[in-house]
Each structure stands twice: as structure tokens, then as C-alpha cells.
């Protein structure tokens, strides 16, 4: 099975690198500056579960990757349009896209670009970052990837052969992988947790522990969580009580150093996925007629941050 990974940043570099380590046939589709960096130094992973410097196959043009079976899409949401253009040839030639972006809006965009049958769902849980020296830094021990078909694809019994191949390539790798179908549930569960974490930590520019140590921090985070849960519920994906307990343990844990990657991006002074992670949640809330004032404040805050970014 030929795997194409678009992007060798935190997520693509980590999961793609672990697949290379496990002997899978992986090519990275990269822009020239990252391709040159990797040609010079290899793909470098620094992780509490094992460091690695990997020689990897790299392409800078999608036509070199025609014949791929799956494209693992690991760009930020703000790069989605260029990523779609980059993978167009291999996908039109038959590859199926497995996106690992947070949020949901990219799914509709990918389906419009390539058709329903060319897009499955995926999400990952990892704390990782791409350092300026090109090292992919895994910041704790966890790394989990969930992949699967959407409800309507299961009903049509389509893509079954591809799913079996994916089950095999995700076996015996140095991360946890699970097929979760229908995938909508995992996408919504992850999004409501992340949107809560991202809205709270970016608004307050601090970790969960710092917010929890403030007078009304727990009330603020609890309020944002209630809003994101109300949106998931209205969309038809209410979280289970057990999952909500897990989310509360993450977002309401006193002393926790947790921050969303969105806040790490703000701290680097870079572009952010605000519209994709918070704006889109707010848009859906409004379409359902829900009042979500805390998401409104978070979205406004992130839009002002973006307006102040210097064009590079
Ligand atoms: N980091 C984390 O801990 C987690 C992130 N996520 C989600 O995963 C997604 C990816 O995030 P993350 O890996 O952190 O982001 P990064 O910025 O670290 O990596 C994204 C990479 O995509 C590359 N890229 C973008 N557009 C293209 C293109 N057209 N062609 C080739 N390469 C391209 C970028 O390369 P270039 O250098 O050329 O710009 C960059 O290296 C996001 O949606 C994020 O929310 C999910 C879970 C955890
Ligand atoms: C919440 C977390 C760290 C989980 O993977 C994440 O997805 C992010 O911060 O972007």
C-alpha cells in the first residue's frame, strides 16, 4: 500500500515518521523549503517514546505521487486550499484522503473538491510541535490516531477493501491506532474538547492550570464546555457521560500545563486555525439558534489577533 503524507509538520511528521519506522511505503509531499531541510538532515523525531532520524522519500509535485492509495492530510486548516491543489493528481488517479486536521469544515471542502467517495475521516490526539530547526517534538507520551468511514459510506458498504488495508498498515506501529466507525462521533468528540481547550487557553493566554487557579477560571471553562456540548448535541452527536467525564478531567484539572496548539501558534506569533476551530463552531451554534456568548468572545478575540498579524 502506497501512502502519501502531505506535510511533515508536527502531525504529518510524527505519524508519517512512525509509519516509515514500521517499514511502510511512505512518501511525503512537501513544499520546497521543507523538502530541502529533510534532504539535508532527514526527518527528525524527538519523543519520550523514542527519538529517530529517518531518511524518507520526498516529492514536491503531486504528479510524482500518482499511484498512492491513501493521502494522509496533515496541514493546518489555513493551508487547506493549497493542500487540495497539491494532492489533486494522486486523488484524481484513485487515492482516498484521510485528513487529520482538527475540526470539521475541511471535510465538506474536501468532498466538494474530490467527491464523497474519496474522503474518509480521521483525527489524532498528540501533543507535538514542529521546531524552527525542523525537529518534530513530541511533548508527552501519548499518540493516538482514529480513522474510519462516515455513516453513509458504511451503509453503502463502500471502501471496505481500503479499510482492511488501513487496518493492516496501522498495526504494529509505535502509536495507538483504532478504526472508529462511523467516524462522525470521534470527530465531534475531539472537536468539542479541543474547541473548549482552545477557546479558554487562547482567551486567557495561559494553561488550564493557570486559568483554574484564578477566581472564576473553573466557571469560565465550564461555561465554554457547556456551549460546545450544546452544539454537538444539536448536531446529533451528544457526548456520552463517560466521555464528558474524560473531557472534564482534561479541561478542568487544577495545575494542568495543558494548552491547545492554537495557543502555541499564537505564542509563536503565527497564523492560527481560529476560523476553523472556533468560528465554525460558532457558525453552527447560530444556525441551530443556540446562544453561545463565550464562543462569540473567543472568536472575536481570535479575529482581532489575526487582524493584527503582520503580513509575511
Ligand atoms: N500539533 C498538535 O499537537 C496537533 C495538531 N492537530 C491538528 O493537525 C493539523 C496539523 O497541525 P500541525 O501538524 O500541528 O501543523 P504544522 O504547522 O506543524 O504542520 C503542518 C505542515 O503542513 C505543511 N503544508 C501546508 N500546506 C502544504 C502544502 N500545500 N504542501 C505541502 N505541505 C504543506 C506545512 O509545511 P510548510 O513548512 O511548507 O508550511 C507544515 O509543515 C491541524 O489541523 C491541527 O489542529 C491535531 C492534534 C494535535
Ligand atoms: C488537544 C490536542 C492537544 C489533542 O491532540 C490538540 O489537538 C491540539 O491542541 O490541537
UniProtKB/TrEMBL annotation:
It catalyses: (R)-pantoate + NADP(+) = 2-dehydropantoate + NADPH + H(+). Gene3D superfamilies: N-(1-d-carboxylethyl)-l-norvaline Dehydrogenase, domain 2 (1.10.1040.10), NAD(P)-binding Rossmann-like Domain (3.40.50.720). It holds the Pfam family ApbA_C. It comes from the Bacteria. Residues 183-297 form the Ketopantoate reductase C-terminal domain. Keywords: NADP, Oxidoreductase, Pantothenate biosynthesis. The keyword Oxidoreductase applies. Its EC number is 1.1.1.169. InterPro entries: 6-PGluconate_DH-like_C_sf, 6PGD_dom2, ApbA, KPA_reductase, KPR-Related, KPR_N, NAD(P)-bd_dom_sf. Residues 3-150 form the Ketopantoate reductase N-terminal domain. Pathway: Cofactor biosynthesis; (R)-pantothenate biosynthesis; (R)-pantoate from 3-methyl-2-oxobutanoate: step 2/2. Belongs to the ketopantoate reductase family. Catalyzes the NADPH-dependent reduction of ketopantoate into pantoic acid. This is 2-dehydropantoate 2-reductase. It comes from Dongia soli.
